[in-house]
């Protein structure tokens, strides 16, 4: 091998070693690359990918299971720079490995449309409006013993709490500003006219207009 060939070989070898070293430093040390992962998506708010199990498949992860909740999954895709991903378990609620920070560069969410649905092996795209109509949110009562932010309204005791105000029913006979519900008043009036009476006390017994005879007084 002549001198020129040796120089060319040495330069070529240095380029290879340098390229491997730079790649190693960029990927293994600096972690300057983009990762793509699937993560949970809120079908009430976002246009999520919908994955559904294959009832004819026997492959684990594709076949259907007994639990119906595990036979479908609403997910979105996140692209994030690996150098900004913390070393924690993504299944841990306190881990934000698959969450973009505010105005974070090189981080984005990808939602479902007709162009990328097959690429993510999704069966369909979710429409949040239709999903909300078909699955209305049920309000659950909170438990103050479990949830610290749960506030339960308690009735106050005027004998203990000076600021407690209890609404008292007014008497229209004595209070000119008292307003009685018309429906309640009509029910009370009808109850009074239909109440049984004693013929011996005709002065308080209501007389019906349809009666043909008046009660006899002894």
What is this structure, in a nutshell?
This protein has helices spanning 3-29, 128-134, 182-193; strands at 34-40, 49-52, 72-81, 107-110, 124-125. It has 218 residues and is α+β, with helices and mostly antiparallel strands.
Verbal overview:
The chain is an alpha+beta fold and 218 residues long. The protein has a domain of 103 residues. Helices cover 21% and strands 12% of the residues. Strands 1, 2, 3, 4 and 5 form a five-stranded antiparallel β-sheet that branches. It is elongated. The C terminus is likely disordered.
Q: Tags for this entry?
A:
218 residues, alpha+beta, five-stranded antiparallel β-sheet, 5 strands, elongated
Low-confidence stretches: 207-218
| Strand coverage percent | 5-15%
Distance from N terminus to C terminus (CA atoms, Å) equals: 150 Å
Strand/helix succession: HEEEEEHH
Q: Give me the secondary-structure category.
A: alpha+beta
Care to count the β-strands?
Answer: 5
Q: What is the general shape?
A: elongated
Largest sheet report: 5 strands, antiparallel
Residue share in helix: 10-25%
- Calculate Rg over CA atoms: 39 Å
**Count of helix runs:** 3
Mean pLDDT: 77
Can you lay out the helices and strands and say which pair or pack?
Blueprint: H1 3-29, E1 34-40, E2 49-52, E3 72-81, E4 107-110, E5 124-125, H2 128-134, H3 182-193
Antiparallel strand pairs: 1-3, 2-3, 2-5, 3-4
């Amino acid at each position: 091998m002549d001198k020129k060939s040796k120089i060319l070989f040495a330069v070529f070898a240095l380029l290879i070693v340098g390229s491997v070293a730079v790649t190693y430093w960029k990927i293994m040390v600096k972690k300057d690359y983009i990762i793509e992962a699937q993560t949970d998506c809120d079908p009430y708010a976002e246009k999520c990918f919908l994955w559904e199990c294959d009832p004819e498949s026997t492959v684990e992860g594709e076949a259907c299971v007994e639990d119906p909740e595990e036979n479908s999954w609403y997910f979105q895709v996140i692209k994030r720079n690996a150098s900004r991903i913390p070393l924690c378990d993504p299944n841990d609620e306190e881990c934000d490995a698959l969450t973009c920070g505010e105005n974070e560069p090189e981080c984005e969410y990808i939602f479902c449309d007709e162009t990328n649905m097959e690429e993510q092996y999704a069966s369909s795209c979710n429409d949040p409006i239709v999903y909300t109509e078909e699955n209305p949110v049920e309000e659950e009562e909170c438990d103050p013993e479990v949830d610290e932010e749960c506030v339960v309204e308690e009735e106050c005791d005027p004998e203990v709490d000076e600021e407690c105000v209890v609404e008292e029913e007014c008497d229209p006979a004595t209070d000119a500003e008292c307003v009685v519900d018309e429906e309640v008043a009509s029910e009370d009036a009808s109850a009074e006219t239909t109440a049984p009476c004693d013929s011996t006390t005709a002065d308080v017994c209501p007389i019906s207009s349809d009666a043909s005879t008046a009660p006899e007084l002894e």
